[in-house]
Amino acid sequence: MPPGVHDLGSALCLVRLAVIAFRPSGVVGGRLREWRAERQVLARYREEWTEAAANRRSVLGEDAAPHVIFEFSDYRCPFCRSSHETVNAWAASGRTRVVLVHMPLSDRSAQPARAAICAEQQGAYARMPDHLRP
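Now predict its structure.
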């Protein structure tokens, strides 16, 4: 075999592998497409959450707080209940704004969630969670 032919064959083989891997249906090309799609979804989530935080009235803490926490809560959930004091302390610190998203997991939880929503509409939400937790 003439000198350099083996190197040329190896180079051509590498080029073929790169073309296969980087084409849109290839391993790398497909993963790059997935990463781009994930970044677009994350950017959309950021927009949606920012808008949701601005439009919610069930908020504890300062509007200008540097951090925002979304709490998905059920008034009858023992785990949600155990975190209630901690979340209130964060909101009271002035560094965290807590946006509550009502998420009743049972029929028993729906009534307190409705009461909290009514309080939101009347601008009295800040006093409600303490009264609604058993």
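The CA atoms of residues 71 and 100 lie 5 Å apart.
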